[in-house]
Design goal:
Number of strands: 21
Oligomer: single chain
Largest sheet: 8 strands, parallel
Bound molecules: the ligand Nc1nc2c(c(=O)[nH]1)N[C@@H](CNc1ccc(C(=O)N[C@@H](CCC(=O)N[C@@H](CCC(=O)N[C@@H](CCC(=O)O)C(=O)O)C(=O)O)C(=O)O)cc1)CN2, methionine, zinc ion
Structural class: alpha/beta
Shape: globular
Number of domains: 2
């Protein structure tokens, strides 16, 4: 069998693209220098795949920011306000990605959303009435030719018309249907152009096909491809799906003129049975996604080869592929110098997965797997005990009962008690937790890490940052303060480092959005808290001020979702183990005099199963209890906050309310205020702080803007329940813009408050 890769990480093995782009944003390097870095990364990635014998190598999977944004630009979906800036192509692109505030004008960034159930974010294309979709750019063609010049035939990857139209937002009166004609023509032109270039295969990504589809959706999909595929000429078209199965439209996919069909056999629970029940045509190639693009554990060769043999029974032509783009795993294990050898043997990152594809490809050609040393080695790894087990932790989870998930007093009574306890003004102002992670803050941590300073010196510096932060917040006039999170590299990695059962890496970065990356810790065994994690930082901060300072924790669902999970026990078991650890931390904070505790569940919505049918059984039935577990033991007057980003949780507002927090803050400014309508409709009881400005962009919101936002919110939210805060933490921002933004936030809150 031949092998294929859906997409490769683009930031580089040492995040070269991140550092070059950030330098470019700061004006430290030129566009040409940025381009050079990009080109050398693309070359390296293609050559690496080629040298690992990959037969179908992707191109145009590279992006300076995001593939969906690239697609929008390729299709000419650049709204007028960005064009009007008069910037060149590259800077117009970055203005759409990050917003722009300067001598040429003032525009906000595009909305950013979670890419299906991953921690990657895409930019939401804006299809305003004035937009005319047509083939405009040349990125896929340029990159195809660039690879070809290196002697590498690639399959350009583009996002498909259906997914593009489904994920776009429509600001005017036109809907997806009104863009069909234009979009078809644009994709036809893409195919013509590829044909002209002699491209053999194109990969059209249609992950939106794994969602629950309506009749209308299916009709749209069929209409689009009946038309588009008429123009393929000599180009073979692979329709690539991932993150689930295509149960709603499998037969339609088969009946269209695709040459290759990419299916996910790992997350697609029904993929194998779809194949069995409906067969697979002999004149098409099945790209079987069997190498996990989302987790870092080695592939189990026996299991995978058995699966491939099963698949072979249904499909004549099979190519071994990744289950999704390798964008979601780190680049290579080779840079990990501190992992113990016996631990390391269990993992495969992107580069190592290429090797797995190659080995499987070779073994399937032979038929006698057992003759291969690689097969044998792999068997041994899978037959040995992979994880650290802890009997006590397991017993604690087993012993959990009703009472562990319930606070003693109901929310309404708590609310009255807390209003007296804290005596805050109407529309209290606060922030989400982190303050700018400046060079100084990061340097302190890296010095400690490298052993240049000891823990005491490190902490002394952290305490100094905290003090400065508290003073700044008092000056700004915020009501509920935070300590600033200066001790954290990342809100999940930091907790992972302080919990037994996790291991962490040095360079295993994964792109989250734009230039921002995360280094997810790996869950390797049963999890328990070994020591208090945040208590001394919080206590120190509270000691500096009379105003309440929030204790700041990451919740169990988020820690789980932003880690690489084990594959030998259930998610529920892992999340309860983490929940118990966080509960102990919550109790210690309360004991130490911290009266408000925020438990962030930033990633709660992210892993809500794509299909509605699975929401409760597979997720919410344990995710919501896991959060409740953390705060079930606190006193009624202790106020529990939570925070969620990229919310879009309209459909699960009742479940969010059931987390039984006292206050929730969430993202609401980059996307429309839909969620607020949903809160009103569901009689949401939790007090709420919908973000009043977007922190993912350096742009400073004006007082007027925030005032208007608050006034709009007050139309739907009881004034006694509304909090005022930014969208999310401020760690990615600089100090000047943070100060300016928060100053405007406080001013706006005061102005609106005085009218109430
Ligand atoms: N896990 C996670 N997912 C999330 C979020 C989040 O906060 N965490 N937020 C949402 C948005 N996503 C985000 C993802 C990343 C960042 C972010 O700021 N990432 C930083 C890295 C943060 C970090 O771990 N920093 C390390 C430093 C790591 C580093 O670069 N070290 C240098 C050395 C630096 C030095 O010597 O100064 C190196 O290793 O080469 C630290 O502070 O300790 C970045 O890409 O720049 C922000 C938001 C959704 N998903
Ligand atoms: C990605 S959610 C971030 C929450 C965290 N408390 C912070 O402010 O950074
Ligand atoms: Zn957030």
């Amino acid at each position: 069998m031949k092998s294929a890769v859906i997409g490769f990480p683009r930031v580089g093995k040492l995040r070269e693209l991140k550092f070059a782009s950030e330098k470019y944003f700061r004006g430290e390097i030129t566009k040409e220098e940025l381009d050079e870095t990009a080109e050398s990364l693309r070359k390296e990635h293609w050559q690496l795949q080629k040298s690992n014998g990959i037969h179908y190598i992707p191109s145009n999977d590279f992006s300076f920011y995001d593939g969906m944004l690239d697609m929008a630009v390729l299709l000419n979906a650049v709204p007028e306000e960005y064009r009007k800036l008069g910037l060149d192509e590259q800077d117009t692109y970055f203005a759409m990605a990050r917003g722009y505030q300067g001598e040429k004008g003032d525009v906000k960034a595009f909305t950013m959303k979670k890419w299906f159930n991953t921690n990657y974010h895409y930019m939401v294309p804006e299809l305003n009435d004035g937009i005319q979709l047509k083939l405009f750019g040349s990125k896929p063609f340029d990159e195809y030719e660039e690879a070809k010049a290196l002697g590498i035939e690639t399959k350009p990857v583009i996002i498909g018309a259906f997914t593009f139209l489904k994920l776009a937002k429509y600001n005017g009166s036109r809907t997806a249907a009104d863009f069909v004609e234009q979009v078809v023509k644009a994709y036809e032109d893409i195919l013509y152009k590829l044909n002209e270039l002699g491209t053999k295969w194109v990969q059209i990504d249609e992950p939106a096909l794994v969602m629950d589809l309506s009749e209308e959706d299916i009709k749209l999909f069929v209409t689009l491809y009946e038309a588009i595929l008429r123009s393929k000429n000599n180009v073979k078209v692979l329709i690539q799906t991932y993150f689930g199965d295509v149960r709603d439209c499998y037969r339609q996919i088969l009946s269209l003129e695709f040459d290759g069909i990419g299916l996910d056999f790992l997350e697609g629970k029904k993929t194998a049975s779809l194949l069995k029940e409906n067969g697979f045509p002999d004149n098409k190639i099945l790209f079987a996604g069997v190498i996990n693009g989302k987790n870092i554990w080695k592939c189990d060769y026996k299991k995978t080869l058995d699966l491939l043999l099963e698949i072979r029974k249904q499909a004549e032509h099979v190519v071994i592929s990744t289950s999704c783009s390798l964008l979601h795993v780190p680049y290579t294990l080779e840079n990990e110098t501190k992992l113990e050898a016996d631990v390391k043997t269990y993992f495969a990152f992107a580069k190592e997965k290429l090797r797995e594809l190659q080995e499987l490809s070779i073994m399937t050609e032979s038929g006698d797997f057992e003759a291969f040393a690689e097969y044998d080695n792999n068997r041994q790894i899978f037959e040995s005990e992979r994880s650290y087990k802890d009997k006590e932790v397991q017993a604690n989870v087993m012993a959990l009962s009703e009472g562990d998930f319930r606070r003693e007093m109901n929310r309404k009574e708590r609310e009255e008690l807390q209003k007296k306890e804290f005596a805050l003004p109407l529309l209290p102002t606060t922030t989400i937790g982190s303050f700018p992670q400046t060079q100084k803050v990061k340097k302190n941590r890296s010095s400690y890490r490298k052993g240049k300073i000891d823990k005491e010196t490190y902490d002394r510096k952290v305490f100094a940052f905290i003090e400065e932060c508290i003073r700044k917040q008092e000056e700004l006039g915020l009501d509920v303060l935070v300590h600033g999170e200066y001790e954290r590299n990342d809100m999940v990695e930091f907790f992972g480092e302080n919990l037994a059962g996790f291991i962490f890496t040095e360079k295993a970065w994964v792109q989250s959005y734009g230039t921002r990356c995360v280094k997810p810790p790996i869950i390797f065994g049963d999890i328990k808290r070994i020591r208090p994690i945040t208590v001394h930082y919080s206590v120190y901060a509270q000691g500096l001020t009379k105003r309440p300072v929030k204790g700041m924790l990451t919740g169990p669902v988020t820690i789980l979702n932003w880690s690489f999970p084990r594959e030998d026990i259930s998610l529920q078991e892992m999340v309860y183990q983490i929940g118990i650890a966080i509960r102990d931390e919550v109790c210690d904070l309360e004991k130490a005099g911290i009266r408000i505790i925020q438990i962030d569940e930033a990633a709660l919505k992210e892993k809500l199963p794509i299909r509605k049918n699975d929401w409760y059984r597979e997720y919410l039935d344990w995710a919501i209890p896991a959060f409740r577990l953390c705060h079930s033991r606190v006193k009624p007057e202790t106020q529990i906050h939570t925070h969620m980003c990229y919310s879009e949780f309209e459909e699960i507002v009742t479940d969010i309310d059931n987390m039984d927090a006292d206050v929730i803050s969430f993202e609401a400014s980059r996307s429309r205020l839909d969620i607020i309508n949903a809160l009103k409709k569901s009689n949401f009881e939790t007090e709420v702080g919908p973000g009043v400005y977007d922190i993912h962009s350096p742009r400073i919101p004006t007082v007027d803007e925030i005032t208007q936002t608050l006034e709009k919110m007050l139309e739907k939210i009881d004034k006694n329940k509304l909090w005022v805060n930014p969208d999310c933490g401020l760690k990615t921002r600089g100090i000047p813009e943070t100060k300016a933004s928060l100053k405007n936030l406080v001013k706006a809150a005061e102005a609106v408050r005085s009218q109430l």
